[in-house]
Amino acid sequence: MPMKAAQGAVFGLLGVAVLVLVFALGYVFGDSGEANSSADVESGDDAPSELDTDFANLNEIFSILDDRYVDPDLVDRQTQYESAINGMLETFPDSGTFYVDAPTVATSVGPSGTFEGIGATVSSQNGEIVITSPIEDTPAERAGLQSGDVILAVDGESTEGWTQEKAVLKIRGPSGTEVELKIRHADGQEETLTIEREEIVVKSVTTVPPGGVLEDGSGEIITDIGYIYLREFNEPSKGEMQAALQDAVDSGKTGIIIDLRNNPGGLLRTTVEIADEFLDGGLIVLTERGRDGEEEVYRSSDGGIATNIPVVILVNEFSASGSEVLSAALQENDRAQLVGVKTFGKGTVNVSNSLSDGGQLYVSVAKWLTPDGLLIDGVGIRPDVSIQLSDEDIDARRDVQLWKALDVLRGTNFTPERTPVAETPVATATQPGG
Known about the structure:
2 domains, 2-enoyl-CoA Hydratase, Chain A, domain 1, 11 helices
C-alpha cells in the first residue's frame, strides 16, 4: 500500500477527496493572507494587449485531432485543453503556480472552513463511492451513515462510474434542501435515506490523537502532555488553536505535541497569528521577498498563550506551506523540536486568479524565507529527529512518530522494535496533500 494512502486509512490524517474537499488552503496567500486576494482575469485590467506567441496553432491542432485521429473516442477537447494548460504551467519550477479546473473549485472548502452539504467525506474505492467518515454532529451522522457505507445512488441516479468530484457536486447543495441517498451498509443491507443539507463547519483543530487516546510506545496512557492536530490554517484556526492551548495550560500540561502531518498550509495571516502564541514578541516568523527583491518581515507579537511550555512538532513529507512557516519559526527560534521526516518544500507565496470558466489559476508572487533567511522551496525542512512510518507500522497501527515525540518531551528514549526505514525524499508533486 502506498505510504500516502496508508496513512490516510490508518491515522485519518490525509485530506482525501471528499464532500469537505479542502483545496485552496494548501497555499499561503499574499496580501497579508487575505483569501480574496485574487485577480479576475475577465476584467482584463492587467492582460497584455498583444502576445508575442500566436496560440492559434493550438486550435489548429485540436481541429486536426478531431478530424483525423484514428480513435475518435479518445479525442476529448476538455481533457486536451486542461492538459495544454497544465503542460504550460509545468515549465515553472515552483509548486505554487498551478491550475484548478472549475468542478474542483466548486467542490472545495474555502478559507472560512464551511460548506453546505450533509457532512461526510467520501472516496472512490473499487469503482464505488464510499463514505470515509461522517463529520461529527452533521446531518450525515444523525442519519446513521457510517464509515464503509457505499452510496449506490443519489436522487435516483446510479453512482456507477462516478468520480469523487462528481459525487461531491451531486450530494452538495444549499442549506435547507434535501438529497436522497441509496446506501448499502457493511452488512449488505440497503436503505434509502432522505437527508436535509446544512451549513457544515469543518474544524481545523482537534485534541483527540489517532486511536482516540494518547499512548506511548509501551501502551501507557499519557495525561501530562497535550496533543493538538492542526488540519489547516483557515480563518477559524486561530480561535480553535487558542482554545486548545489555553486548555492545555490550564490543565497543567508539561508539554504539547503539535501535529502538522499532512497539513497543506493555508492563510498567511492565520499562520503568523498562531506562531505568536508560542513566541515572545519581536521575533522573526518569516520574511517575504517579492519579484522586485523587496522584503517584508513578519514578527511575532507579545502575549502568547504558550510561550513557555515545551513543544514538539510532528511533520511529514506532506506538511507544506503554512505548516513549514510555523515549523521553521518555532524550530529556528528555539521554541520547538521537529519530529518526523523532511517536509514538502513549498516556499512560495501565491494568489488565486478567477478564470472565466469558473476555474482558478494560482500564481506565485513571492518567496518566503525562514527566520534564519533560508529558502525552502523544493528543499523542505529537515526535522531534528528523523523517523518515518513504515508500511509495517501502518498495518499494525503503530504511530512511532507520535511515540518519538512523546520521548523527546519526556526525555526518554523508547525505540520501537522494527527495522529502520530510510527517510523519504521531499515530494515533487505540484499539489501537496491532496
